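Researcher: We plan to redesign the surface later, but first we want a full-length starting point. Tokens attached.
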């Protein structure tokens, strides 16, 4: 069918039951720690009208297309249920544009537990570890199980602008958006936006004028799902060195490395040393480099400080290397703050 044709005959029996809800209710908020990304309101302003949809019949499969606005991990979605207490439907997440028969990335039953009408229910999807970039499309899929559940959305009669720019689809295997393409499911999506690795503190100046700088290829992963390489550039060439880290810098003020040193100790004890290594490069030059891939280190030392990590844990890292003419015969890089991803 085309976008403007009537729905098939097997949907006509419930089309008559779609009602416009007129009561404006203050639905409870169930968001967790993520930031609100996308939203299609359950309580639109006229001329857009609130509508109810059949979320009970198993032969009806709905897909609301969503376009991510920020980068991060999909923490979860909030949907708005109607029906009796104890009624439920199945919610799934698939990546890509609707209609979508791709791999199910997340699924869970969603149950109405209170008499609120509608009831706002937050569904935590973080176990799927679904990483999205701005503009990425995915679908919130709803399929009934015969328990009498429904869900709330909206309808925008022409020429009103729909409550959300992406379409609602009704399948299975829809070839176009639902009915006249002016219907939307009500939802909110929440993203876990991990900050980028952040440098802090000041690198010391070595005998040959080098200022060693530490960087990270990415945030580390608590599950070691993704690599994270720490690189220390501008190290004195042909010197022994290593990277060390700590877990908690709260209330810590960097300490002078020695009375006349330009380096600062920037990581609060206790600390963990990684592999000792040689910087390479040329002696008396600033082209030495130190590297450590954190997953490799954690794999080799399963009792290392902080293991096992959890999502959101912090890690503070800095490099130490030999510089014989310097105070304490050593110098330090600046430091970096890292945050564990899933």
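Model: Full-length starting sequence:
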């Amino acid at each position: 069918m085309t976008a403007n044709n009537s729905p098939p005959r097997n949907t006509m029996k419930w089309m008559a039951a779609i009602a416009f809800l007129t009561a404006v209710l203050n639905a409870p908020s169930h968001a967790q720690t993520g930031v609100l990304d996308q939203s299609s309101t359950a309580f639109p302003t006229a001329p857009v009208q609130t509508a109810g949809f059949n979320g009970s019949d198993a032969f009806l499969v709905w897909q609301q297309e969503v376009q991510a606005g920020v980068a991060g991990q999909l923490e979860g979605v909030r949907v708005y249920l109607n029906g009796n207490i104890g009624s439920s439907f199945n919610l799934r997440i698939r990546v890509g544009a609707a209609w979508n028969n791709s791999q199910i990335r997340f699924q869970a039953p969603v149950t109405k537990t209170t008499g609120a009408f509608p009831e706002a229910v937050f569904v935590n999807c973080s176990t799927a570890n679904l990483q999205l970039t701005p503009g990425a499309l995915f679908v919130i899929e709803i399929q009934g199980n015969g328990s009498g559940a429904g869900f709330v959305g909206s309808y925008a009669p022409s020429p009103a602008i729909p409550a959300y720019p992406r379409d609602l689809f009704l399948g299975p295997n829809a070839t176009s958006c639902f009915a006249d393409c002016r219907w939307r499911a009500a939802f909110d999506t929440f993203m876990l936006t991990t900050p980028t690795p952040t440098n802090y503190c000041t690198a010391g100046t070595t005998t040959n004028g080098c200022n060693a700088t530490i960087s990270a290829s990415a945030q580390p992963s608590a599950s070691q799902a993704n690599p994270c390489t720490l690189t220390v550039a501008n190290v004195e060439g042909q010197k022994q060195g290593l990277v060390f880290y700590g877990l908690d810098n709260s209330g810590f003020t960097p300490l002078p490395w020695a009375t006349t040193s330009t380096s600062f100790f920037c990581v609060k004890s206790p600390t963990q040393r990684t592999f000792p290594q040689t910087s390479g490069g040329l002696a008396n030059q600033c082209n030495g480099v130190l590297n450590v891939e954190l997953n490799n280190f954690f794999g080799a030392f399963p009792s290392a400080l902080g293991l096992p990590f959890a999502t959101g844990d912090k890690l503070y890292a800095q490099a130490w290397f030999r510089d014989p003419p310097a105070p304490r015969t050593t110098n330090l890089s600046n430091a970096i703050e890292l945050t564990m991803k899933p």
